[in-house]
Design brief:
287 residues, 1% helix, eight-stranded antiparallel beta sheet, mainly beta, binds 6-O-phosphono-beta-D-tagatofuranose, 1 helix
Length: 287
């Protein structure tokens, strides 16, 4: 495995294929790119800020300790949408032996100044990124480092997947799920065999069996698969045609045709950890 530390970002290259690599920005510990045998898996806006001035538009921003706006929890309701770990500089912890290409990053209140000034949570986060030739796995470990207080949080991988053509794309294996339409705050059961995007979409598929592998299909060909461990919810977000014109760092505006957010998380309710307890969850994206 080759690991290049370029200061603001880390590039990991698979030992058996120089065209299989993953690039992580230390700011937000945001995966900017993952190429599997040369094929880019993620969508990144041409106007994404990579200088730490704001969360990255694209790749895999990390959402913690709150997903969307929390209107009820006295502590989490003070945080911006999606929390602040995607706006913090994470620590590169180095390579992990025993697998082809695995690295780790860490965050804690001592170095997460933007979050620490708004949220008193005591935690240690370790993100492990494992790169293989046909998939990559991101695993998060959250530890409650308090001796006395519980730790309550959401977690979500805000994954922007790259598409060839939205019009030719379907998302499979979410049929029958209970859905919270976040745009309209309504609930329904999705009985459609597959999801097609034809308007602005912001749907949380709740408590979907983690044995269900979500597929993104171009025509008849699977271009992405998503496997989850301990992440029961899947948020499907697509801005459609209008919203990108209002998002200044979404470029090109036609990019809506080449992306979809399929976001694995625990967002329907809060994870609660007792003092000293750990929580581990992961997603594996393949092609
Ligand atoms: O996950 C969908 C969403 O919450 C939408 O509200 C949309 O705004 C997107 O995230 C982008 O959020 P951001 O905070 O990155 O601009």
């Amino acid at each position: 495995m080759s690991v290049q530390d370029l200061g603001s970002k880390i590039i990991v290259t698979h030992p058996n294929d120089s065209n299989t690599s993953i690039t992580i920005l230390k700011y937000g510990c945001t995966i900017l790119s993952c190429k599997l045998k040369g094929e880019e898996q993620l969508w990144l806006s041409d106007a994404a800020r990579l200088d730490g001035s704001r969360p990255v538009r694209g790749g895999i921003p990390l959402v913690f300790p709150v997903f969307d706006w929390n209107k009820t929890d006295p502590l989490l309701s003070k945080l911006p949408q999606h929390g602040l770990v995607r706006s913090c500089n994470w620590e590169f912890l180095g390579k992990v032996d025993g697998t082809a290409a695995t690295v780790q990053f860490g965050l804690n209140p001592k170095i997460a100044e933007p979050l620490t000034k708004l949220w008193p949570g005591q935690y240690k986060l370790v993100l492990t990124i494992e790169l293989e030739l046909d998939h990559f796995k991101t695993e998060i470990q959250v530890e409650n480092t308090s001796n006395s207080e519980p730790l309550e949080f959401n977690w979500l991988f805000h994954t922007y997947l790259r598409l060839n053509d939205l019009d030719n794309t379907t998302v499979a294996n979410l049929k029958g799920a209970h859905v919270r339409d976040i745009l309209t705050e309504t609930h329904f059961v999705d009985e459609n065999p597959v999801i097609r995007i034809h308007k602005e979409t912001y749907d949380s598929y709740e408590k979907v069996d983690t044995k269900s592998i979500v597929q993104v299909i171009d025509g008849e060909t699977e271009i992405h698969s998503l496997e989850r461990e301990n992440l029961p919810d899947i948020v499907v977000w697509h801005p459609w045609t209008e919203k990108p014109t209002k998002i200044d760092d979404f470029e090109p505006k036609s990019g809506y045709k080449n992306m979809i957010c399929i976001q694995a998380g625990h967002v329907t309710d809060l994870v609660t950890l007792k003092p000293g307890q750990k929580w581990i969850a992961s997603q594996t994206l393949g092609k």
